Amino acid sequence: MIALRSQREIAKLRAANLMVAQVLQLVKKSVAPGVTTAALDKIAEDEILKQGARPAFKGYAGFPATLCTSINHEIVHGIPSKKRKLKEGDIISIDVGVCLDGYYGDAALTVPVGIVGKASQHLLKVTEESLHIAIANAVVGEKLYTVSHSVQKHAEANGFSVVRDFVGHGIGTELHEPPQIPNYGKPGTGLTLKAGMVIAIEPMVNMGSYGVRVLDDGWTAVTIDHKRSAHFEHTIAITDDGPKILSQI
Ligand code: MG
Q: Bridge partners of 161?
């Protein structure tokens, strides 16, 4: 069952996702060479608790932290650590979820640490563009896999690949709700988007092949060819007035 959210519920989802956007901006400001991923996690957790919400990832299926921090060839679900220091030239995906008043927010971005190479800059640009292309396609009456395909098309046209093993999702009173939102697919197929659907679209784009491996920690997903990967995510509401990004300031 895919929930169709009322105006009142979308307002609550906006509040949770606005907090997510604010936390991401706060964490982003602290990204610098020498900073540990555990320090970024603490900044996020302190802010979420201060604002009266709950970190949604912490404890989810046993995940131990507030943020997922995924560096370079790590795709998603990296675990923050005091032993992991950012280095000049790294790229880091920061993913955060909150639960506020029973409603969830979820978004992610990938940022450079100091100055990064041209190829990494291009990867970040194309991945973020693919998210915004997908959002523009998420209109009432459109088929879901047209949205999925639009991510794939833009990434592949730039020589990159899209991850198959992890997908976006519906979001509302649970962090992960139906439907699943792959970043690839056959245009013109899949369910028809309706007003009131709230979904998290999250392209994961690799410089090399789309093959994925999960490390022994049981969480961190990495590219099998060790090439870099980027990840951007927004939670959006599909409305009669078009897609509304809930997770931006
Ligand atoms: Mg998500």
A: 206
Look at residue 2 and tell me if it is in a domain.
no
**Centre of ligand 1 from the C-alpha of residue 201, in Å:** 7
Q: Is residue 95 part of a domain?
A: yes
**pLDDT tens-digit map of 71-100:** 999 999 999 999 999 999 999 999 999 999
In this structure, is residue 40 part of a structural domain? yes
> How many structural domains compose the chain?
1
Q: How far is CA 206 from the centre of its chain?
A: 14
Residue 236 belongs to some domain of the structure: yes
Q: Which pLDDT value is given to residue 249?
A: 95
Q: Which domain holds residue 43?
A: 7-245
**What's the gap in Å between 33 CA and the centre of ligand 1?**
26
Q: What is the pTM of this model?
A: 0.98
Residue 106: both structure tokens together = 């979820």
| pLDDT tens-digit readout, 138-182 | 999 999 999 999 999 999 999 999 999 999 999 999 999 999 999
Domain CATH number, residue 240:
3.90.230.10
Determine the distance separating the centroid of ligand 1 and the alpha carbon of 37, expressed in angstroms. Answer: 19
**Other CB atoms within 10 A of residue 151 CB:** 28
Return the structure tokens found at 34.
């020498």
CA distances from 174 to 16, 171, 183 (A): 12, 6, 21
Query: What does the alpha-carbon distance between residue 195 and residue 2 come to, in Å, rounded to a whole number?
Result: 11
Please give the mean pLDDT across all residues of the chain.
98
User: For residue 188, how far is its CA from the centre of ligand 1 (angstroms)?
Assistant: 24
